[in-house]
TrEMBL record:
<dbReference type="InterPro" id="IPR011146">
    <property type="entry name" value="HIT-like"/>
</dbReference>
<feature type="domain" description="HIT">
    <location>
        <begin position="54"/>
        <end position="116"/>
    </location>
</feature>
<protein>
    <recommendedName>
        <fullName>HIT domain-containing protein</fullName>
    </recommendedName>
</protein>
<dbReference type="Pfam" id="PF01230">
    <property type="entry name" value="HIT"/>
</dbReference>
<dbReference type="InterPro" id="IPR036265">
    <property type="entry name" value="HIT-like_sf"/>
</dbReference>
<dbReference type="GO" id="GO:0003824">
    <property type="term" value="F:catalytic activity"/>
</dbReference>
Length: 137
């Protein structure tokens, strides 16, 4: 998963202004679906690249309550969670959640990424720490 330099800069600018949990202070227009315990929302700072392919849609499944990790999901939430993931998996979305101790995890509120790509493969990726460059074929 990567963002282009422009997207990463935009995200980092936003992070500097963040004072409260963004998923606990969610604006309604981002919500795509809602269940008793979860919101499925548009990721407004989504990745540009996933599995070397250009990202078309990047959604986040977030718990309505502020919990920190998958293992904190209550038993009555499991069916809702898996029903949404099954539905979007059938629609071609890849699904992933970072480990609780992940050093890459940027938000403390539990969330699962649902990502659909265009299928377009990157020709090359050049890293020089930050910034880095992505080039499509
Ligand atoms: Zn939160």
């Amino acid at each position: 998963m990567y963002r282009t330099k422009k997207s990463e800069d935009r995200y980092q600018q936003y992070r500097k202004t963040e004072s409260r949990c963004p998923f606990c202070t969610l604006s309604g227009e981002r919500i795509i679906e809602e269940t008793k315990s979860f919101y499925l929302i548009k990721n407004i700072y989504g990745y540009d690249i996933w599995d070397r392919r250009k990202v078309k849609i990047h959604l986040l499944l977030i718990s309505k309550n502020h919990i920190a990790a998958l293992q904190e999901i209550e038993k009555d939430m499991v069916q809702e969670y898996t029903d949404i993931l099954k539905k979007y998996s059938e629609r071609g979305f890849d699904i992933f959640t970072r480990a609780t101790v992940s050093l890459t995890k940027s938000q403390p509120h539990f969330h699962t990424h649902l990502i659909k790509t265009t299928g377009r493969l990157l020709k090359s990726v050049h890293f020089n720490e930050d910034p880095y460059f992505l080039h499509f074929s």
